[in-house]
Every structure is written in C-alpha cells, then in structure tokens.
Amino acid sequence: MDPQLLRSFIAAHVLIFLTSLSLSRAEQFPAPKTIPALEALKESVGELRIENIAWRSIDWNHSILDGLKASREEEKPIIFWCHIDLPADDKRC
Known about the structure:
The protein is mainly alpha-helical. It has 3 helices and no strands. The protein starts with a helix and ends in a 19-residue tail after the last helix.
C-alpha cells in the first residue's frame, strides 16, 4: 500500500474518531442556556483576587547586581525570586 494513501487513511479515521468523541462529550456537558452578564463575570473573578499580597509591598530590584549592591550597603540578606509563569494571586499555590 502506498505510504501517502496509508497516512491519509489513518488521518481520516483519527479525525472521525475525534469528532465523534467531541460530539459525545458535548451531549454530556450542554452549553448554558444564558450567557452571564459582563458585570457578573467581573464580580466572580474579583472574588478570587487576593487584595493585600505581601510581596507587592516590597521594593523589588529587577537586576541581580542592583540587589547584591543594595544587600551589601544595607547589610541585609538578598532574596532571589524566580517567577514560574503562574498568576501571583493564584489560589492553587
């Protein structure tokens, strides 16, 4: 059998399988009858936000060299913070 024909055959069957799978999932989880208003969405998102996060009040240095210099001058330890691409007030952390 021609490899190109075989690939097309497999791709078509995978597409049919995924389409049937998504249609069966759509029946399990129907779309909501109404779309919530923008203000209701803002309110529900606002409830998840933490107002006073301690690290926001810190005067951060964006350069490690500036931080090391300030650490020496103030005779205080340096804190190195590495952000891993999660929102700051994500309650999963």
